[in-house]
Amino acid sequence: MSTVLAAVCIAILVVMALALARACTAPTVYDRILGVNMFGTKTVLFIAAVGFLMGRPDFLDIAIVYALINFIGMVAVLRFFEYTAPIE
């Protein structure tokens, strides 16, 4: 069981690297924001998987708090770019 969870953690890390690559090389600001949001979501999954792998259920509380911070941060960034977008 722990080898499967270790494989899941490695797979999540690979997806996190791909999300960072998307965030760094995306053509528009909104694509970059999407990449950062995807990275944050995968971080929540990674924290939960590591907590389950280590037998520490309190990591789920940390993952939930991180998810809330990620959501509020993304809303704030999108609001910022909504009101400072260049006029075409």
Class derived from helix and strand content: mainly alpha
Measured between the Cα atoms of the first and last residue, the distance is: 55 Å
- Can you tell me the number of structural domains? 1
Provide the residue-averaged pLDDT: 89
| Count of beta strands | 0
Report on the biggest sheet: none
Gross morphology: elongated
Beta-strand residue percentage: under 5%
Order of SSEs: HHH
**Low-pLDDT ranges:** none
> What is the count of DSSP helices, taking H or I runs of 4+ residues?
3
Alpha carbon gyration radius: 16 Å
Helix content: over 70%
Describe the 3D structure.
The chain is built from three helices and no strands. The mean pLDDT is 89. With 88 residues, it is mainly α. The protein is elongated, with a radius of gyration of 16 Å. Helix 1 (2-25) packs antiparallel against helix 2 and helix 2 packs antiparallel against helix 3. It has one domain (2-83). The termini are far apart.
Which SSEs are present, and which pair or pack?
Layout: H1 2-25, H2 29-54, H3 59-83
Gist of the model:
The chain is mainly α and 88 residues long.
Keywords:
88 residues; mainly alpha; 3 helices
